[in-house]
Amino acid sequence: MASTEPYSPKPPAPLLSVQRVDKRYPNGTVALEDVRLSIEPGEFISLLGPSGCGKSTLLKMFAGIETPTHGHMRWWGQPFDTVGSTGRRMSMVFQEATLMPWASVADNVRLPLDLAHVPRREADVRVAEALDGVGLAKFGKVLPRELSGGMQMRASLARALVTEPDLLLLDEPFGALDEFTRNRLDSDLRALWQRRGMTVVFVTHSIYEAVYLSSRVVVMQARPGRIIAEVPIDGPPERDDAFRVSEPFMQHCKALSELITDAHRASFANEETGVQS
């Protein structure tokens, strides 16, 4: 007899799925413990927490640079070593710009395309588009040392974007910049995210930065590193300086500040009772 149950299609797999992940180093340090997280396509996620809570370690796991000691992770429902065959791409931006000092800005941005053997004519078009997207259209021929710190980070971001990633990972890329430059780059990054429709995971120590950028903030606690809260940010799609002084912005900052304070207290309590970090 044919089933009378209505057809219910299987929901698509999350872009990133982290299930009961631990990371323990040979010296006994527990960087992450029982981390569980699901990230959907198109989200802008910030990982927020005190130093030593495992934010950067978790981000490196997303990039395939680190591997879990226990638990499992999936990218678009697949193991990491099969991601390349799906046609999906990811890029990572580190805390430092890491540009080749002897090469022009355009050559630095072109590097991942050269490594992928993209034809030069196509690569040049994509490099020009990436530089234009980060406001460096007129600086392709200069050397990195001729750029300010903020402009160097723009070049590093262009190098990540030139591959047209589905997933962009950023490890505190603006942390060393002055507040004015940082705010401007945050605005540019959010606009790029909206325009390109990609998924972004962003590591930061800044509550204000996390609230401004994110659709969801994942709060972490140290000793050992774990997720203690996930906070949706109910802000307008288009965000500007007015949002930074709005009541919803302040309320989100207050709530996250209280969570971080609690995380600090718990971390120190664990340290005093002998829990390994």
UniProtKB/TrEMBL annotation:
Q: Does the keyword Cell membrane apply?
A: yes
Gene3D superfamilies, per database record:
P-loop containing nucleotide triphosphate hydrolases (3.40.50.300)
> Which of UniProt's keywords are assigned here?
ATP-binding, Cell inner membrane, Cell membrane, Membrane, Nucleotide-binding, Transport
**InterPro entries the record matches:** AAA+_ATPase, ABC_transporter-like_ATP-bd, ABC_transporter-like_CS, ABC_transporter_ATP-bind, P-loop_NTPase
**How is this protein named in the record?**
ABC transporter ATP-binding protein
Q: Which family does it belong to?
A: Belongs to the ABC transporter superfamily.
Q: Where does the ABC transporter domain lie?
A: 16-249
PANTHER family from the xrefs? Answer: ALIPHATIC SULFONATES IMPORT ATP-BINDING PROTEIN SSUB 2, TAURINE IMPORT ATP-BINDING PROTEIN-RELATED
Molecular-function GO terms, alphabetical: ATP binding; ATP hydrolysis activity
